[in-house]
Amino acid sequence: MHGTLSRGRRTEQQSLATSNAPPMATLVTEGNKSIWCWITARPDVSVGHNREWNHLSLDQLLSILEYDIQLPTAEPVHAQSSPPSLEPTLDLSLPPVRPRLYVSESKMWNCLTGHGVDYQKVTKFEWLALVGIASVMEEGILQGDLTRLVSQDKRSLPKRTDALARKGYIVKRPILARGCKTSKLWLKPFAPSVQIQKHPTETITEICNADFPRDAIVGDLEPVPWRHHWSGDTIDYATLGRSIMGVVKEFGVIRYQDLRMKLGVAGHPWQMKVVTRTCRFFIELGLLQYVTASMGNRIFRDCIKFKRDITPDDLAIFISGGVRPSSSETIMSPKAHHKNAQG
């Protein structure tokens, strides 16, 4: 059994762009030829199916068109008007399209998982999802796109990617894309680094102070300069969470509507919804608290109070989309908190 990794089909525009272009010249050196000979000599590598084209030299392989080119159909003419001498001659010893490279199943497993074939560790459908994630390499893939790529049920795939992340084969991070909360997935070696991993012994507030100038947080309610991390099409959960904690800590107690202004999300419905959910999450973790506070001569019942610094473990739970810790009480919004206090 053989496996192959591919980035998927080219877009229609790319296909049209290459259909009339000659094969791109590739620099062939003695070193490249030696590497090619070493690859094709391996028993776990097949050029085409069943090692059909392993005998081809590198020069021969690169002389073959990479994609099947469909030449435009000319207007029909009389068969007698086409001189036989003008018909192209084909080299029947070479395939019409450049053959793909395949590797054995065991080699695929070793490359993607670090161990041999083991359907006890990785189920069949988890394996198919893992191959799909690996095919996009460093670009990563949204969970919804992976569902379509591997043709799996959208209700079952999240559990499989959760299992792959838990076992350490992939990195799964929450993200907002196309206005919806979803996850982005990478094969672990291709995953971009997360800043918190560089500071395992520091609290998240110390990281905030290092990254974000304090004078941009305190003094006024002007939006923080780094709000672009969550004001566009996607939201960087780690930066948003750290910013919420940094702002609330510097103010001590802040009105919820002032927090939205400071984060630059006022008037942006779905960003405000994310901030609300994040605050509720942090309240469940015991980091923040809804309170009633007096400011000047007025009493406000929609305030948020800082309770404790967020730890790297807290942030890891947050950015991984982990399950909230169990709580005996329901976490309420500021309005619900106000109504409950009145009752």
From TrEMBL:
In residue numbers, the region (Disordered) covers 1-24
Pfam families annotated for this entry?
B-block_TFIIIC
* Keywords, ordered alphabetically: DNA-binding, Nucleus, Phosphoprotein, Transcription
Major localisation: nucleus
Q: Name where it's found.
A: Nucleus
The GO biological-process annotations, alphabetized, read as: 5S class rRNA transcription by RNA polymerase III; transcription initiation at RNA polymerase III promoter
**By what name is this protein known?**
B-block binding subunit of TFIIIC domain-containing protein
Q: A Gene Ontology CC term for this entry?
A: nucleus
Q: Name one GO molecular function term.
A: DNA binding
| Sequence ranges assigned to domain B-block binding subunit of TFIIIC in this UniProt record | 124-191
Organism, scientific name: Parascedosporium putredinis
> Can you tell which superkingdom this protein's organism belongs to?
Eukaryota
